[in-house]
Design a protein that fits this description.
The protein has 75 residues and is mainly α. It is 65% helix and 0% strand.
C-alpha cells in the first residue's frame, strides 16, 4: 500500500511532523489509501471497545482526538 498508517507514523509509533509526512505521501491517492486504512483501524478498535455502540465510541474519539495526539507518546 503506497499510503498507509506506517507512512504517517515514525518507527516509534508517533505521528510524523508535517514536513516528513509530506515526504512520505507522494499524491492524493496515497493520502486516500492512508485515510482509508486509518478509518478501518478506528472502526476495528471502536467495535472492540464498545461492541454494543461503536458509533458512539467513534464520535467520542472524534470530539476528543487532540487527547490522543497530545497524550503520552509511544517511545
Amino acid at each position: 500500500m503506497a499510503g498507509s498508517y506506517k507512512h504517517a507514523t515514525t518507527d516509534a509509533g508517533n505521528l510524523r511532523d508535517n514536513e516528513s509526512f509530506v515526504g512520505m505521501i507522494e499524491n492524493l491517492g496515497d493520502a486516500y489509501e492512508m485515510a482509508e486504512e486509518m478509518y478501518g483501524m478506528i472502526w476495528v478498535l471502536a467495535r472492540r471497545a464498545a461492541p454494543d455502540d461503536p458509533a458512539s465510541a467513534v464520535e467520542e474519539a472524534r470530539r476528543n482526538y487532540r487527547d490522543g495526539i497530545n497524550g503520552p507518546q509511544v517511545s
